[in-house]
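Re: the multi-chain job from yesterday

Posting the exact lines I submitted so nobody has to dig through the queue logs.
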Amino acid sequence: MLTIEQALQRHGAYLADPYDIAVVGAGHAGCEAALAAARLGQKTILFAMNLDVVANMPCNPNIGGTAKGQLVREIDALGGEMGRAADQAMIQFRMLNQSRGPAVLSPRAQIDRRRYQNVMKQTLEKEPNLDLRQSEVVAILTDLPNKIDNTDKNETTALPFVTGVLTRTGAIYRCRAAIITTGTYLDGKIIIGHVQYSGGPDGLFPAIGLSDSLRDLNVPLLRFKTGTPVRLNYRTVDFSQTERQDGDAQVVPFSFEHENDKTYTEIEQMPCYLTWTSPETKLAVHENLHRSPLFSGEIEGVGPRYCPSIEDKFVKFKDKERHQVFIEPMGKDTYEMYLQGMSSSMPEDVQVRMMRSLPGLENAKIMRSAYAIEYDCLEPTCLKLTLETKMVTGLYSGGQVNGTSGYEEAGAQGLVAGINAARHLRGETAISIDRSQAYIGVLIDDLVTKGTSEPYRMMTARAEYRLVLRQDNADRRLTPLGRSIGLINDQRYAQYEAKQARIATENERCRNTRVSPNEHVNKLLESLNSTPLKSGAGTSLADLLRRPEIHYEDLAAIDPTRPDLSWIERFAVEVDLKYEGYIKLEQDRIERFLRLEHKQLPESIDFTAITGLRLEARQKLSAHRPTSLGQASRISGVSPADIAVLLVYLDAKGAKTHD
Amino acid sequence: MSIQSQLSDTIAASATPPGTSGVALIRLSGPASSLVAAAIFKPASGRFLPANTMAGYTCALGLIIDPRSQSEFALQDATTWPVWTADSVVSPENMLDQVVLTRFAAPHSFTGEDVYEITCHGGQAVRQAILDLLYHLGVQPAGPGEFTRRAFLNGKLDLAQAEAVMDLIAASADKRAQAAMRQLQGQLSNRLREIRQDLYDLLAQLELVLEYPEHEESEKSRAGLLARLEPALDKVLALDASFRQGRLLSEGFTVVIVGRPNAGKSSLLNTLAGYDRAIVTPVAGTTRDTVEELIDIGGVPVRLIDTAGLRETQDLVEKIGVDRARNAIVEADLVLWLISPDEDRFGHPDFTHLNEELAEIRELSAQTDALQLIIGKEDLAASVDLRIWLTNELPQLPLISFSAQTLEGLDAMRQAILLRYQSTGSGQADEVLITSSRHKACLDKTSRSLALAATELQRGEMLDLAAALLRDAMENLAEITGDLVTDTLVETIFSRFCIGK
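And the result, structure tokens for all chains:
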């Protein structure tokens, strides 16, 4: 533990300006955290190792995708920044899973990464209450409460609390809360073949020292690994041998604020290209496997299974002859392209050989090499659902440093950490979003309750209530919460309410508008492969929409009085009607889920003293200290029988207090 | 934990059903059980150790002693309680019974706690005296299903196994014991997990399609989904269908006797029950209510139900009886219809009410061929008109003439019951059967969800719904074994346990 007084003894140390909240790291988590904290009235400082890479995208140049697109919409609905910034830097839009159901329908955009950085950096610079500072934080400064009076043995009051942060250059910034959002920088190590060196992503410096400070505070750390593919020059690619993939004609912006704004719906788009690995690629991998640090054991960090390197793919899926490779633009003002699917930690010469084995890339020039990066991250079960660490009061963390992967996952956590740090200082109760409310809730609960053994990627399959957690209703789910937190202003809230009213009105109109069985109607139905209406048997627009083969757009011809709604509003009307029965079933399941979720476990509960709990469960529960029975049920090593015991215990306790 | 709280956490109950039998079993479980056992059990000879030092899985012969008359004994102070050895001197008036004591040391016992089983003589008085002694010493009477509940809570049983134990206790006929035993050994659980694994694989494949829409394998995987779902659905349906057989074994093959109060139903019931071994004493009810008897015919547990008549009545109690009779017919595997015609004022038989009864039975009974006609021998002999009516109205119906005095027709009736049993429940003996209606309800929900999922997969537009339905199916399956526990589930199940297990 290092106190301000002790830090001041160091050579060159000095007291800099004081703040309420310090955010360490200006990536996607840090930006959201700092903006939220500042907007909630906290004097906030955001540290970046290098101000030229604020909100950097060191890996894929896109935002959104399955589950991730939903996260961006949720961030936006709560009043976060990612959606707004992405809309301003969008160079291609696709709505994924168009024919697979609304629950998995996911927006995904290619992003001009420089533009994104500039937009975000300027947003930070303009924000009152927020200072952006290039500097490396090397230690979290803390103190113990009641230092003089040691008689108080209460464990919670004996936790150290945050008093400031110390930078490499000796500046001590007093603060009452700190948020660690260091991404992959902590003790980062770059690995390319047998070449290894200390480094951060994208050729930047790693953060050295902060890991030790965290260890010193008893924050448990893990070592994870991730990787990124080569970047190459557009002008060196023969695109005639690739398949061009354009964006959708219908662009749906991420942010609620841009829904009906032509600036964001009518954008100039850039194409991606698809090519495939060849037999030569496979050969290049197999001839050089002995040179791969992944297979020689030089990489100790745990990498993500869902994002395997190209050498991993060829080794683990032996039967597959070829793999997809996408060539994606990185911005409007650059010829640099990203080669999705070719992540690798092979030596550079092998990387060149592999890349040139792809059709169309025979003469391509690499601009940046692929690499693997190893980094320290927090063992996320050391966090509360509020994203505060259990060891240090006022110390929060969010983003990749919590064991996740992806810009969207990072942003979501940063937002929650920023909100809760601010609420903590304002003396307000923390917000916690449960699994039935948002992907954000699923993400954080999974992390802090179950932990993770590899970089955690959000997937729709992780959500139990996917039919309810859709991208189209994120605002309906979360904007009232964002409003009550204080991140949604009056104007936007009024617009939100107007939108919901339009959807509700149109829903009613569809239920009440009769369709009579005339030739015009039946011709349309036949053209849609739908059963024509029998004469005399009229129906409502709503009933027609409930037919799986009929979509809202299809009925325009027989529905002349329909209002002019945005794409997202029309979609919401259709889903609300078409899925009504299923959504109701899911609501029932959510109610059952919430019964366990709302059974609070008292903070004072002594799990070791509950007879009937298996030893493993007692240990796990004591270590995790879940706040509800629902959370307890999701801890690995806690069996249904243990939950039954806890139920009985709580009932018995409840009965006693009633006596 | 103090001795008092250990005692209050220790339970005892008779594990054998009430009534006189050769031997009876009293089970004692909990942290204070060895303290209590040592204080009430005196080994018969030096070959046997005192109860508290016996090893697990050993038994000892000895006497149950009431320690309360010992001069130093103080109820509130357990340190004063005796530990009897073979050499201890005991006056004869304190000896309650000669017993065999078996010890199961924690955690290797049914409940996972320290357990003693006292095998005593089967008389009600002896058994009650021993239980009274235990309860007086501070041991708590076991609540309904308490032993099984502790076993479940201590991780000894999963829910399906716990329920199977309950079935085992109530099981009487051999076949049923076998089905219960197989379930206990986890065969049902294994079968369910097998199906769940199939569904899990399928769901994983579907999730791949949804999660990676741009992946090259996405379309191919999508095409193969339906072909993988169908075999899983078949497995669920097969298990679901085994319920009828399972229920026959668990609840008994239900035979309902209908007929008017004076038609001789009671003597028919008594004859069948009297000839065959009666397993349970009659279920309480008014004389105008249904009366139930569980009997064993050729290894088949048969639930024999005597009903009130079907006639409309103003009497409230009788009305309830008539409603119950109707319900019994709805659930019946076989209806024995005992007919006896009224006579008109000229002494001729009147068939009006018979026509009414027949119509009603046919309306209520789900299985049209589950009707067996029984006619009193005397009636049949007396009435030519009756025979004519039968030939005209019921030409297809098998008929047995029965006499309670000569037992004529008894064998024919037993044969008819067995025949009907064989034709309804034809499950394979080595098959996994489901016997609980809770399991049946879960399986029904599972198959419904799977069928809907198949429809969605076929249509191919809303794969998210197909996935939700698959998940739903898996959750329903998991609910059977309790792999997922909702707070209501545990409550529902434990309230169904009978005392003593």
